[in-house]
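We include the entry.

. . .
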Amino acid sequence: MSFQEMINRALGIKSITLKKIIENKDKRPKRICFGSKHRDACKRIEIKGNKVVGTINLPFEESIKLFLENETGLKLIQRKDGKFWCPANSEAEYKKLELFFEKYKQKVFLRDTLECSVSLSEHMVDEENRTEIGELEYEAKYNESDDATNKIASIFVDFINNADIFKEASIICAVPSSNKEKLNLPQKIANIILPCLDDKVNISEYVDWKNEKPKIKELDLDEKLKALENVDLNINFDIKNKNVILIDDLYQSGYTMQYIAMKLKESGAGKIFGISIVKSRRDSDNT
């Protein structure tokens, strides 16, 4: 391990490589959502002879650990089975867990190679019906609704300004558009939210694809990464040692966000905090 890598580890800065992105592909599960699959994660428990009164049980620590430990002051601990729990040793501590659980009930914590990746909501309620935010994303993206775009931007501002970890970031950056002549939804969101965020710079206009980006949503996961490598990325802004909030619309496999985060880090960026509007039901499609 190099001296710089040791410093980064001490600062909680992850390195991202193609190898790590590929290795992450097979990790399961990929998401934590208190509003659906993990609705029973926060619960009271009784352990004979133990002071623990309640806990949040989690299948992995990626993304959610930063939020949970920062906002509750409690520790996420790995169990013998490889999963994680956050024990509360008093009623006051358990109340913190309950408040955290309710605050992030609709958010989706994602398992990838960034410092954290969070979607504001799941995309679909079931196979046919979108969530409320999923419907806004559809209207903003495909019908170019200004009203839906502004509502999404307002949700972004509220989320960023009410989570302390984002105070570490001084840069916001949208996933670039495949059409350089037209702003995509992440770029629109970045432009709208900037005046509402303190001491942050939007570098979206300085980040674009080097080569024409093909549509990759129908490609297999391995083919997506190869396609992104062929496209490559221009970053024409000094981001050395800067922490970045990276914005996307739909988080599917997460390959695009992880690839861009890797390129940002290769250009000197520190921590990358990913925020997407919605998470698809599966990793292999856009639903």
